[in-house]
Specification:
Elements lengths: L11 H7 L11 H20 L4 H21 L4 H15 L15
InterPro entries: MSMEG_1276-like_NTP-PPase_dom
């Protein structure tokens, strides 16, 4: 019997049950939920980093985006608010489209 002790997507218990298996779950308190979302973000980022092709990378990016939606909500905001902040930062500091790699800065 595998023990997972990790946050899973909402329909995972339904999918497990459809496979004829039994399981144990619990609902997390808000503080623990936020901690587990952060752990999940690390897990999904690692899976993205290990992706060997574009399709797998996109799947992992979709997982990260789902976590970002949930984290925004935990922080009392919407993903649209996060996008607004991203756009404001991009306006002030730019994005990453020009692929600039800073090597060093010389103090005069």
């Amino acid at each position: 019997m595998p023990v997972y002790n990790k946050l899973v997507r909402d329909r995972i218990p339904e999918i497990i049950q459809a496979d004829g298996k039994t399981f144990t779950t619990r609902v997390l308190e808000e503080k623990e939920y936020r901690e587990e979302l952060r752990k999940k973000a690390h897990e999904e980022l690692q899976e993205y980093m290990n992706a060997s092709d574009d399709e797998t990378a996109l799947e992992e990016l979709a997982d990260l985006l789902e976590i970002m939606h949930a984290l925004a909500k935990c922080h009392g905001a919407s993903i649209e608010r996060v996008e607004q902040i991203r756009a404001e930062k991009a306006e002030k500091r730019g994005g990453f489209e020009e692929k600039i790699f800073l090597v060093e800065v010389h103090d005069e």
